[in-house]
Amino acid sequence: MTSSSGDGDHDVPTAQPRPLVCARCRTPSAALYPVTWTCSVENGVRQYFCDGCSRENLRAIEGRLDSARW
Prior knowledge:
By secondary structure, the protein is α+β, with helices and mostly antiparallel strands. The chain has a domain of about 50 residues. The protein contains two helices and two strands; from the N terminus they run E-E-H-H. It has a two-stranded antiparallel sheet with strand order 1-2. A hairpin with a 2-residue loop joins strand 1 and strand 2. It is extended and about 50 Å long.
């Protein structure tokens, strides 16, 4: 009779995180997780916007939020 230990010693490929790219101007982020960027979920797709595009379009971004969110 044999048994398996189930300790998870299998080689599983892991995806390496990539720098983000602005969904509007296509500028790549300098940092892996830029804290000044804006994240938006549109039609079920997560999009990131650089700080420049976020500032330029702040009114439009805020206009989509429910008043309970701000």
